[in-house]
Amino acid sequence: MTCFGQNIGKSEKTTQIKVQQIKINSETLYAFTSGFAQSQTIKELYLIHCFITSDVLEKGLIENISQNKSLILLDLSFNLLNGQAGGLIGKLLSSHSKNRDDRIWLCGLRGEVPENDVNLEGICELNLMGNALNYKSVKDLCYFLQFDGWTRSLNLRYNQIDAEGLLEIDKMLDNNENLISLDIRNNPGITPNTDELEKFGESLKVISKRIFDKLIRNIKLFKEKRENNKFQEVQEEQNEEDEGDEEEEQKLVCYITKYIK
User: Is residue 258 part of a domain?
Assistant: First the structure.
């Protein structure tokens, strides 16, 4: 398995890896992901229904994936992740965010623009559907997400998130303006008949509307940023064309001046 992991790191063509319905322990997972730190092509990693616990996640995955700079999508759906997993995954997202922030900062010091889209140099999409994430998981994860500027999509469907967890998500979105896709359906605290929120002086309808409105706000901001980036690209292209025209004009002037002399 270690050889396989190292080959992944050396591969220049492998962009997606999917492992499904295979029980994986921490040693196997660590060996399997050993080449991820060096890989520059892996974009998507699917570990679905692999009986991964929070302990296996911590010992077998976090270290190697944290060092990777090409992974965009991480799918850990239908595993056994519980209360401890939220903080671990939050740290993983934080390390990817730091890598991108450092890259932008260094380019800024040099007066350069990153050659590649920095958005695509770390996890943007995270699927945690069908685990056992609870209030503690969500609280720990939201602590990191409130400072996260890169994660766009998060799937928390079919977990054990209660009403307090829903309130943590709502609070996190007060600060997070980058998350544009969030699935929290089929959780105990988010069912139409739940009365848990009443003890917090809230109603499911009201808090769901708040979360929805904040996601709509983020989507609008995302579109504005994208349009601004497109405008800047057009301006840069136009400036390059103008510079080229000026060079041609200078050559023409020099040629005419030389001819007159």
Answer: no
Tokens of 155: 């799937």
Q: Find the angle CA(53)-CA(129)-CA(131) to the nearest 5 degrees.
A: 30
The answer as to whether 31 is a domain residue is yes
Assess if residue 257 is contained within a domain: no
H or E stretch at 16: strand 16-20
Range of 84's domain? Answer: 2-219
Residue 60 has pLDDT above 90, yes or no: yes
In sequence order, the 6+-apart residues with CB closer than 8 A to the CB of 184 are: 156, 157, 161, 166, 169, 190, 211
Q: Given this model, what pLDDT does residue 30 score?
A: 94
pTM of this prediction?
0.81
pLDDT band at 228 (very low <50, low <70, confident <90, very high): confident
Count of Cβ atoms closer than 10 Å to residue 137 Cβ: 29
**Integer Cα distance of 158 and 239 in angstroms:** 51
| Domain CATH for 151 | 3.80.10.10
Angle among Cα 145, 149, 155 to the nearest 5 degrees reads: 50
At 63-120, the pLDDT tens digits run 999 888 888 999 999 999 999 999 999 999 988 777 666 555 555 666 665 555 545 4
Looking at the domain assignment, is residue 234 inside a domain? Answer: no
Whether the CA torsion 173, 210, 212, 86 is positive or negative: it is positive
